[in-house]
Amino acid sequence: MIPGFVDCHTHAPQFPNIGVGLDRPLLEWLDKYTFPLENKYSDVDFARKVYNQVVEQLLKNGTTTACYFGSLHMEGTLELVKAVVKHKQRALVGKVSMNIKNDAGYFNDTEKELYDTEQFVKIVQSMNNDLVEPVITPRFAVSCDEKLMTGLSTIAEKYGCRIQSHISENCKEIECVLDMNPDAKSYAEVYDKSKILNDRCIMAHAVHLEDDEMKLFASKKVSVAHCPASNTRLRSGLCPIRKLLDNGIKVGLGTDVSGGDNASILVAMRRTMDVSTHLELLQGHNRALDWKEAFYLATKGGAKALNLGDKIGYFDTGMQFDALRIQVYAPGSQINRYDYSVDTNEEELASSLVQRFIHLGDDRNIKEVYVKGRKVK
């Protein structure tokens, strides 16, 4: 038995594009692949079908808690909430907010966006489902102006909601944000002026944060969702997680589909170790994260990043039982049993089993999934 996995950042509407378009940089990829697809979620039937598949797939892969970006559409994103409730996953669900015009026509009028967001929050909270919460979701400072972000932070404060967005994923993105906000000294300052940054805020990526921005994140208790797959696939950069942790910043893992090419947190753990090792090899310092630290980020670290650390992420008296039952040597899996072992006692055997699962396992090894004590797989 191990704690359930926590995915701190994924885009539910983008799952139909998973695995394609990953030869393009971030902003080009958004225009070509992301906005046209997300526009389709005005169709509630389309949204319902996709979102049920998404939630089922994440639970199959052991993701007991997910922090979702939805689309711009309130009714469409409510279908994501319904899918989460139906399949009994724990989730934060955000209706995406955007008000800056783009060629895809994928944006809202500011007043409409603020109204829709507040209605979405009220509807989700009125469901009184203790597994599902709304999260305020300005897409990022390229697609939201200060007026919208300030209004969204006001809604978050009024209803006690978390806030999620993106920051410093890509160098051209940073240039664009600073061009749009010439009075700001940094990307983080753009968000801070709108009161986005606080202890309920989860920022995805943070690949290229400056030292002053890291200090700001630490002082405001902002969390980071590390998305190594999409950062690599879209050529955004190598995020220095060791440095973020050393600066006192809470970090969890995100799959970031469909910039990320896999919905499994197991894969995110492996990519996290790879990226950290590459940085150690390139820089010659900042020791790479090991499997124990990657496992922490996927469970307890992710729970703390989402401000759920008092409920989930590890096993202890009084915690809610989000858990996975693992069969390491499952028939047909990638892990074979051999008549040889380096283990000399039960503790070494237990450690080897966990390592094998982290490095080689997949959904075939995840035999049962529990959310708040209820078996959902």
Q: How do the SSEs run, as a string of H and E?
A: EEHHEHEEHEHEHHEHEHHEHHEHEE
Basic shape: globular
Number of helices: 13
The helix/strand class is alpha/beta
Distance between the termini: 14 Å
The count of DSSP E runs of length 2 or more, i.e. the number of strands, is: 13
Provide the residue-averaged pLDDT.
97
What is the rounded Rg?
A: 20 Å
Largest beta-sheet details: 9 strands, parallel
Strand content: 15-25%
Quaternary assembly: single chain
Unreliable stretches covering 5 or more consecutive residues: none
**Which range best describes the helical content: under 10%, 10-25%, 25-40%, 40-55%, 55-70% or over 70%?**
40-55%
Polypeptide structure, described:
The structure is a single chain. With 377 residues, the protein is an alpha/beta fold. The chain has helices spanning 26-38, 44-60, 74-87, 110-126, 146-159, 171-180, 187-193, 211-220, 228-233, 241-246, 265-283, 291-305, 346-360, and strands at residues 2-3, 5-11, 63-69, 90-94, 96-97, 132-138, 162-167, 201-205, 223-226, 251-253, 323-326, 366-371, 374-375. The strands form 2 sheets. Strands 2, 3, 4, 5, 6, 7, 8, 9 and 10 form a 9-stranded parallel beta sheet that branches. A 4-stranded antiparallel beta sheet has the order 1-11-12-13, with no helix packed on it. Helix 2 packs parallel to helix 3 (74-87) and helix 4 (110-126) runs parallel beside helix 5 (146-159). The longest helix is centred in the C-terminal third of the chain and has 19 residues, at 265-283. The protein is globular, with a radius of gyration of 20 Å. The model has no long low-confidence stretch (mean pLDDT 97).
